Prior knowledge:
Chains A, B: Pfam families: LacI, Peripla_BP_1. Chains A, B: InterPro entries: HTH_LacI, Lambda_DNA-bd_dom_sf, Peripla_BP/Lac1_sug-bd_dom, Peripla_BP_I. Two copies of one chain form a homodimer. The radius of gyration of chain A is 26 Å and the shape is elongated. In chain A, the strands form two sheets. In chain A, strands 2-1-3-4-5-11 form a six-stranded parallel β-sheet, with helices on both faces. In chain A, strands 7-6-8-9-10-12 form a six-stranded mixed β-sheet, sandwiched between helices. The first copy, chain A, has helices at residues 7-14, 18-25, 33-46, 52-59, 75-88, 104-116, 134-141, 165-178, 197-211, 228-240, 253-265, 283-287, 299-314, and strands at residues 64-69, 94-99, 122-124, 146-149, 159-163, 184-188, 221-223, 247-250, 275-280, 293-296, 325-328, 331-333. The first copy, chain A, contains 13 helices and twelve strands. Chain A folds into three domains: 7-50, 434 Repressor (Amino-terminal Domain); 59-164 and 299-330, 3-Layer(aba) Sandwich (Rossmann fold); 165-297 and 332-338, Rossmann fold, CATH 3.40.50. At the A-B interface, helix 4, helix 5, strand 2, helix 6 and helix 11 of A face helix 4, helix 5, strand 2, helix 6 and helix 11 of B. The structure holds a DNA duplex.
Amino acid sequence: MSDKATIYDIAKKLNISAATVSRALNDHPKTSNKTKILVQETALELGYEQNKLALALKSGRSNTIGVIVPRIDINFFGSIIRGIEDELYPRGYHIIICQTHDNEQKEIQNINALLNAQVDGIITSITKNTKDVSIFERILDKNTPLIFVDRKLNLKGASSVTLDDFKGAYQATQHLINQGCNRITHLTVIGYQSVGIYKDRLEGYTQALKDNDIPFDADLILDIENDINGGKKAGQKILNFKDRPDGIFSSSDFMILGAIKEIKANGLKIPEDIAVIGFSNEPFTKFMENPISSVDQCALEMGKLAAKVFLDQIIDPKLLKVEKNVILAPKLKIRQSSSKKTPAN
Amino acid sequence: MSDKATIYDIAKKLNISAATVSRALNDHPKTSNKTKILVQETALELGYEQNKLALALKSGRSNTIGVIVPRIDINFFGSIIRGIEDELYPRGYHIIICQTHDNEQKEIQNINALLNAQVDGIITSITKNTKDVSIFERILDKNTPLIFVDRKLNLKGASSVTLDDFKGAYQATQHLINQGCNRITHLTVIGYQSVGIYKDRLEGYTQALKDNDIPFDADLILDIENDINGGKKAGQKILNFKDRPDGIFSSSDFMILGAIKEIKANGLKIPEDIAVIGFSNEPFTKFMENPISSVDQCALEMGKLAAKVFLDQIIDPKLLKVEKNVILAPKLKIRQSSSKKTPAN
DNA sequence: AATCGTTGCTTTATCGCTCATTTAAAGATT
DNA sequence: AATCTTTAAATGAGCGATAAAGCAACGATT
């Protein structure tokens, strides 16, 4: 039971007051060098370590930040967290992780728990089902910095780091058009339109068509489940079209994977017959035998930026609420699945 | 600035002492129902919330656990963390995440930081380069429960949840033999033998050969880099063998992916010419057009078990150190890449 | 010699909560 | 009626660190 030494132990040993020890350790100007050295030596000798909890209680700052994501084991969120950690750890911050599993109730619980734990800020991606804004207002009421990553709410006083989903979708669609496609379907999930990102992707797609004088055809918008099976069903529909599409822009990599499987199973070639591009740049897309093009969401960078925005917010606690909204440009990863003209990786 | 209410605020309002408020809120037996109700109502009215920091300082327990992994954005570790979170969150624990990036110095820093933060326990996967045991002994000296996941050190007093790598390797090799292979190469990383798991996999492979009266051939052990490129190089070597192998057991999915690409590029068929199986069950293995067989490491379950072991440890703080070593049986995921006889998914 | 300013430390109070101990009040016992 | 129990609340201390204010000692100033 090597019970930790406190500043009191040091004080007693040196016959000085605890406050002096505290100042000596903090390199306070009003301390003599003699005492500083003496205290530091004794601290080392006793194996003293600052109790962060006491400091946190006293100062009201825990040096801890809460991060809430739908699920940790989704690559995208894992990378975001890594970005946050990479940025904040060197500055002495700890990161508390919470998951919502896309459940609004858990989201509320998580936020309350984090606030109780006195975190210095919260970075979060909202659930697909978040309806109630009030819990987020509570965060702001407490003057706790709130930064949304990727999935955001529009809330005065809250910052955000998001992807320009419109642009990503626009570029992906434009890329397909450049490859010679002129009948492009779009796979999406209408049910998630509240999250905003799917809506933006749909709009980017629509705009790209418009700018290229390709008529918009509502039948080409396929509303499916966001998984491989949904993609397979979409693949069937696509194969059954009288006027078969020659391109697919999917708002998710999993949906496009299903569609690809279905299309190939029916003897069509990708990208020759149908060129496809997904969204998210899931790790598996580049590992495939025929690598899948996708829109990269720069997760790592989003995490880093969110961390930086957080740091900006707390530079001056007296400052009126700073609100900062960063929009990241996505990066197209052109691979075989959409390279009719020039194959690439 | 809706500054949080404390028990003193409640006490003042009701003209009772703070201690009574504390007891009332904690449902202490020596409190009258009248007071309890009164206090609870006032607490609600003032928007009181317990300050966990103060509680932690007072009680010496932070209700926080530290998790240190090489990298968060690796699927395997993400799943472990998810398992831990799923298990501990409902019991009121928070999880602080740290990364080592496989750097021993960062590992030491992380541990020190977590101990300063007064975590109630540490769950970790050591780096590939960990040499020094003393930092882990420090954890135990402080009576902080220490649980290793997957990558462990043998340390008296520390618990562990690991995979039976030997068994996984044995089963994978046996499976290839069952499929008719009798000249099986093994891809490994000799440099990582200190981590233990690669060594165990090699031994499982060796034992399976022995039990099936297949002579061990040291030339069939290929020591390569643990990535796709390493796998490609291994693939070349395999193709150049005079007596070409008909099976590959790889201790990593990335290595086998490279090997597969190389082999297919040379016109050979998988599994017909060469049957292959990897290790880790990375997500991409099942998404491939020709899904890759692999040994699943049950990451989620490992995380959950680690959390449970932690909870076991702290049931009775007075108890002598409990040491618990759980070894999980891996699960073979048989897919196309190794299914010569009966195709499966 | 008396006063002033520095320097460097001590004292005291506080962050919010809880535990052990004490006190007070009411009821039970003879 | 006087004492003993029981019960509920008050008191005070302390977890570990720090900030503000107070004070002693020294040398410098006039």
